[in-house]
């Protein structure tokens, strides 16, 4: 019985949203701005990956497949996030599973930081002056939640 209890307490915790989710205003900002970048979703994804590989050139080697497919996956994931902003509990399972898959690609915590920086840079490129302090804070808060859930999922897997 002790061995069973010990095994249970040593297993990683289930991913949860540990900090306050997004405010109504942050959700409004993200939805509005995602609609704008979505007008040229592939261009936005190109900007993202260009920024990512500029920030962290070694990450380029992780992407062996067709980048058009990878760009589509990025846009699809962002669309899923934005569609569920008012239901964050619905995001936990898919993001944790995504984190588990990324563990198989040898993604490390520093890589998540680079992705966050690339996301902010791509948003700034696409939105220009409209990507203000409040916008940066809202997107950064969302990405912080996403990265935390994915990393918890990677530990669980």
Automatic annotation (TrEMBL):
GO molecular function: FAD binding; heme binding; metal ion binding; nitric oxide dioxygenase NAD(P)H activity; oxygen binding; oxygen carrier activity
Swiss-Prot/TrEMBL GO biological process terms: cellular response to nitrosative stress; nitric oxide catabolic process
Entry-linked Gene3D superfamilies: Globins
Keywords, in A-Z order: Heme, Iron, Metal-binding, Oxygen transport, Transport
Domain of life assignment: Bacteria
Start and end residues of each Globin domain: 21-155
InterPro entries (alphabetical): Globin (IPR000971), Globin-like_sf (IPR009050), Globin/Proto (IPR012292)
Pfam families in alphabetical order: Globin
Family of this protein: Belongs to the globin family.
PANTHER family named in the record: FLAVOHEMOPROTEIN (PTHR43396)
Protein name stated in the entry: Globin domain-containing protein
Organism listed in the record: Pseudoxanthomonas helianthi
């Amino acid at each position: 019985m002790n061995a069973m209890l010990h095994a249970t307490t040593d297993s990683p915790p289930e991913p949860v949203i540990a900090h306050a989710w997004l405010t109504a205003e942050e959700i409004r900002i993200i939805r509005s701005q995602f609609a704008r970048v979505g007008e040229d979703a592939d261009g936005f994804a190109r900007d993202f990956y260009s920024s990512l590989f500029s920030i962290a050139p070694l990450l380029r080697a992780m992407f062996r497949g067709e980048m058009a497919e990878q760009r589509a996956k990025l846009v699809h994931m962002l669309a899923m996030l934005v569609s569920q902003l008012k239901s964050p509990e619905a995001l936990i399972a898919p993001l944790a599973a995504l984190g588990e898959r990324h563990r198989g690609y040898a993604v490390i915590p520093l890589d998540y930081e680079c992705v966050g920086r690339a996301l902010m840079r791509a948003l700034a490129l696409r939105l220009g002056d409209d990507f203000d302090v409040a916008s940066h804070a809202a997107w950064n808060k969302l990405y912080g939640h996403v990265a935390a859930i994915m990393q918890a999922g990677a530990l669980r897997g």
